């Protein structure tokens, strides 16, 4: 809200569908999450609270409902949101390239 009070309008850009070239990276991330889930389950069995916390941090996911709630909250705050067709970073670069954002 401070940014808005100074006349600065932040724009939240959300990722769209990832490009196909990112499939390999997404598969690696999924494998790491699957591994973290297995380690977490074993840590629960072993009652290893420290390892549970460490693995739990790796298992955080943002649901569509959470994303929609965030968009609604930003809308209520007067902060514009954009759903990028693909990567949010690429969309931000386009906005900057065309002088629409800085």
From TrEMBL:
Coiled coil: none
Molecular function in Gene Ontology: 5'-3' exonuclease activity; 5'-flap endonuclease activity; metal ion binding
Keyword Amino-acid biosynthesis recorded: no
Domain XPG-I: 78-101
InterPro entries linked to this entry: PIN-like_dom_sf, XPG-I_dom, XPG/Rad2, XPG_DNA_repair_N
SUPFAM superfamilies listed in its UniProt record: PIN domain-like
Xref: Gene3D superfamilies: 5'-nuclease
Keywords for this protein: Endonuclease, Hydrolase, Magnesium, Metal-binding, Mitochondrion, Nuclease, Phosphoprotein
Residue ranges annotated for the XPG N-terminal domain, each copy included: 2-34
Keyword Phosphoprotein applies: yes
Transmembrane segments: none
UniProt-recorded name of the protein: XPG N-terminal domain-containing protein
Species whose genome carries this gene: Euplotes harpa
């Amino acid at each position: 809200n401070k940014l808005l009070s100074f006349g600065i309008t932040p724009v939240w850009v959300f990722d769209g569908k990832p490009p196909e070239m990112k499939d390999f990276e997404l598969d690696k991330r999924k494998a790491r999450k699957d591994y973290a889930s297995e380690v977490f389950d074993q840590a629960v069995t072993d009652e290893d609270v420290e390892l549970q916390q460490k693995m739990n941090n790796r298992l955080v996911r943002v649901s569509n409902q959470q994303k929609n709630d965030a968009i609604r909250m930003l809308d209520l705050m007067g902060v514009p949101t954009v759903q990028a067709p693909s990567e949010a970073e690429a969309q931000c670069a386009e906005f900057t390239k065309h002088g629409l954002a800085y």
